Amino acid sequence: MNFSTFPFKLFLLAATGGFAVAMTGCNVDPSELSSSTVNAGAKYKNGGSERPLLPAGDWWACFNDPVLTQLIRKLEADNPSLAVALARYDRARNELGLAQADRFPSVSGDVVWKRKRDSASGVFVPPEINYSEYRAALNLKYEIDLWGRVRQTVEAAQAEEKAAAADVAAARLSLQAELAKQYFQLRYADAEMEILKRGVSLREENLRLVRARVNGGEETGLGLARAQTEVDSTKAQEHELSRSRASLFNAIAALCGEVPGQLKIPAGGIKDPPRIPSGLPSQLLTRRPDIVAADRRMAATVAQIGATKASYLPRVNLAASGGLSSLDLGTFFDPSSLFGEIGPEVQVPLYQAGRSGLDIGRAYANSDEAVALYRETVLKAFREVEDALSAMRYLDKEIVSRRRASASSGEATRLSSQRYKGGLVSYLEVVDAENSSLNAKRSRIQAESARLVTSVQLIQALGGGWEVPIPEADLESQE
């Protein structure tokens, strides 16, 4: 054997053998992965308009409420939860940059000055046992990505970076929708508060009337006690609603990144809920940022399988080093002090105690988990859309009935009051009519509030105004 060519032959043998293994082991067959297909259907079960969905941008503009717009702008600037999502996205971008840096050679420099002492009993004894060594060099190292380890690591990092961007959009949408829901509930709480205040005024007026009738001998003390009870009971409801309103206000302040004492919400009225087109079920895959994030993480795990397989194949590096080295500082810059070396380095994993199989098995398990999470996310999205559509359909019918009940109960209260003043009925009938009217009005307000909040929930379930295309190859794999 010619030992002068043995290292080169070893390199060729390792490279050839590794290439054969890589061609059969690094490429991931999509059929090896669990199916991520979800049958979306041609239309939603609970109906919905197939008109174009909300355009990308400020989805809350469809409510035409300047105060809501002002609060959402403040949320985007100061909300800490959104800042957390943005920080995670920045981290993913930097991790992508680190992965991409492995595509290029790394160059390092070193400058060495050592005072050394060699053994006088060694095989090679220097002229002087104590001496100095001076060295300055540039070192280059570049991995030749024969099996695609670096490429697939970059692909995984790119998918994770896109997933992190979708996470930011999902967090922003969730926070915006929560703020809108709390804001509309606050507005309707104010409207309900007005009803209770009018109820308190009406009951106080009735109390004065009953007291006058008691003093005139036309009414018993029972009626007076019942009238006082109704005043106090209605005031208690007013205080209870004030407590709920304070909690809503505090929640809005926290979403806006403010302490409650610093936030000011201008007065405003109640807006009629807009009609939200739901579009086609197939559009949901690109409208929902959480679905896009799950899709990209699924793609990242697929790329990571290939990168994991390639990491257990022979790694080929091109290494080079050159510079100046001398034992005498006076001759350090002489041409005779120049040195250099260049050539391939092959790292061949020979025995890993089963680590390769376990590591690859873990990569496949991560991929199976990502596929399951994707399916779970898609199913959750369709459920939320169907929930919102069905709620809006039944709330529309409920509101019609609640408005009729409110109007008829108001008329019943008016007639009962007239009959009581005419001495035809006892005050108990007036109390029953007033309570029915108050409850009917509050129920109407609560149903209208739920309808407006459900509109926000539908917008959120449809992905808001955020939209990003999934690469065509991924869409084909889902069909």
Brief digest:
The protein has 479 residues and is of the alpha+beta class. The chain contains 10 helices and 4 strands. Residues 1-25, 30-34 and 469-479 have low confidence and may be disordered.
Structure in words:
Residues 1-25, 30-34 and 469-479 have low confidence and may be disordered. It is elongated, with a radius of gyration of 38 Å. The chain has helices spanning 6-25, 66-78, 80-101, 149-215, 221-255, 284-287, 289-310, 355-421, 427-461, 472-478; strands at 106-117, 130-144, 315-326, 338-347. The chain is an alpha+beta fold. Helices cover 61% and strands 10% of the residues. The protein has 2 domains: 39-104 and 148-313 and 361-478, Outer membrane efflux proteins (OEP) (Up-down Bundle), CATH 1.20.1600; 108-118 and 128-144 and 316-348, Outer membrane efflux proteins (OEP), CATH 2.20.200. Helix 4 runs antiparallel to helix 5 (221-255), helix 4 packs antiparallel against helix 7 and helix 7 runs antiparallel to helix 8. It has a 4-stranded antiparallel beta sheet.
